[in-house]
Here is the input.
Amino acid sequence: MMDACKRKCMVFAVSALLTILLQLIGLLQLSNVVRLGLPIHPVVPVLAVVLPAVTFFLALVPVVACKRSFAERRFVYPAVVAGEIVFTAHVLARLCGRIVRAHGTTCYEARWQHWFDHKSCKIGKIERALQCCGFSTPSDRAFPFGENGESGLCVQEYGFADACAGKWVAETEMVAKSCMFVFFMVLFASFACLFRWIRTHRAKKQLSGLDAGSEDDDEPYADHTREPDESSKMMPAALTGPVEDGTLSSDDPPSYSVVAPPVNA
Here is the structure.
């Protein structure tokens, strides 16, 4: 009993630490998406923060819930876990497709050009964060924006000699891969919870079947405690009389006592 309790405590501690670690990864990627303006929707890292906590809660439901209430809702729990698996797999597929489409199109340059046309300071934040200047070259649409078409102000002010396009794409890939890692871990934990529930349910069914079989095996022995039927009560007393010296009195011939007649005086 003590070993089982220690094992449960250890599993709980490891699961809690892993959940916190995954949430920290999601928070870090959310910060990178917002700070660097990456072409990844902020909902993706938000889900990377929320889903580990949901999975940890679902893993604890069979442990902390009342056994009676959990037994009444035993089909709701695997349905919720299966729904989480489907949702996480859908988000993961969309994220992978987004990365593939980003390499095949000019979404990075289109986003940079949009900021440049609107003279957004977002370009300057990206340049300072990634220590780069411009998009494809240090003088390509760089911040600060020159009034007379000057394009070398970024290099002069910050001293960065690298372009931002390669670093920006690499940062996007790093954020996407980190979120994908979180989603893969959520999928693994969800499948583990579902398989654990199925194994527990099958073990309970087998145990109930063995109990029913043992009760059926005990039924023939219950006949010894039954009351004698009416036919046994109707048997003659000679056949059910007392036994003397190990033999029944009914096997011996009947004995007659001879009474002497009275003598007349």
User: Anything to note?
Assistant: Residues 8-64+77-201 form one domain. The two ends are 100 Å apart (CA to CA). The longest strand covers residues 243-244. Strands lie at 243-244, 247-248.
